[in-house]
Amino acid sequence: MKSIVLGLSLFVAPGAVAAQTQPAAAPAASPDYGKPENWLCRPGKVDPCDANQDATIIKADGSRSTEKFSPTSNPKFDCFYVYPTVSLDRTPNSDMIAGPEENTVAAAQAGRFAAHCRVFAPLYRQVTLTALQALLLGKPVLADRAMAYRDVKAAWDEYLAYDNHGRGVVLIGHSQGSGILKQLVADAIEGTPTQRLIISVLIPGTNVAVPAGKDVGGDLKATPLCHTAKDVGCVVSYVSFRADSPPPENSRFGVVPQPGMVAACVNPAALGGGTAVSDAYLGTRGAGMASAPMGPWTTDAAAVTTPFVKVPGLISTACTTNGKFSYLAVSVNAKPTDKRTPTIVGDVVVGTRMLKDWGLHLVDMPVVMGNLVELSDAQAKVWAGKQAISAAQ
């Protein structure tokens, strides 16, 4: 499996470039999502979401075992996934041809959800890394963010019309994908009959504004934050930073501009609050091109041959506030006797410089991936039970 390129999504953040991008002169027609080739992943085709998800489990004493992955043969619900900013196309908005970067990020972020659900992931003409990097350098670029949203909205409408058939849906995204899904929920789902189909909304890597001390009423008016695995129709949102490296003043993550609002933080490993050991699935080779490379996983430097690594007990997470910032604090709990590496990569590195204002954006999902996957299944079962009760009344 190629190095995970989800790290490239560091170049899109809520509000980071919105004021500098410009819409096209006339809205371009959305792709025809009735055509299978316009989907990155969907049932009935061999696609990146079918990639190998096997993981090597490495315990503190250095012992190893292999966790084999098998997708469910009888999915009871659906997952609708929107990938982050990864396109290396040289145009401001991407084309509709999946490159290695789209394929790899879908395998890393969406493939594991196939343990429980059918995975639908549309290709869309996202704002590319090319455009966003140019904008950060102060160069004028025409990038149409609205087109990216319109494409995902068209794919969502196609899915609802021809594939859903009343099934529950978990919405999943990261970074640009999360921002698009947040807009989709606010503009096209809340207050409509479709809202009853939503099992949960898992959108890490973007800021979701909520009133201080509350869990609904900011960016989303009728979709509260999740507090337990029994909650449905709720949202999980967070941005991650190392516990010993909180957001610096210039960080755009974990803070929102609206007065009286804070950035939501829901810890997938401890929905009710507090600190918990997370169920991480980390990329064997690291966190992508924008990160430092991953070194040996154990003191004996033995090779790992699976695409993913699990390190039970090594990582814990907790929602934390620090001044105006609200974020998921990630701790590495290495002890002197631990045979595993105490160094988990995921910081954004440009040249030799670490960009601390980006935190652990590159591993927002991996540090709690197992928690997210199992949460989706638990919530789907609750949702199905409620639907059965409603149908019987």
Automatic annotation (TrEMBL):
Keywords annotated in UniProt: Signal
Pfam families found in the cross-reference section: DUF3089 (PF11288)
InterPro entries: AB_hydrolase_fold, DUF3089
Position of the signal peptide: 1-18
Name recorded for this polypeptide: Lysophospholipase
Source organism superkingdom: Bacteria
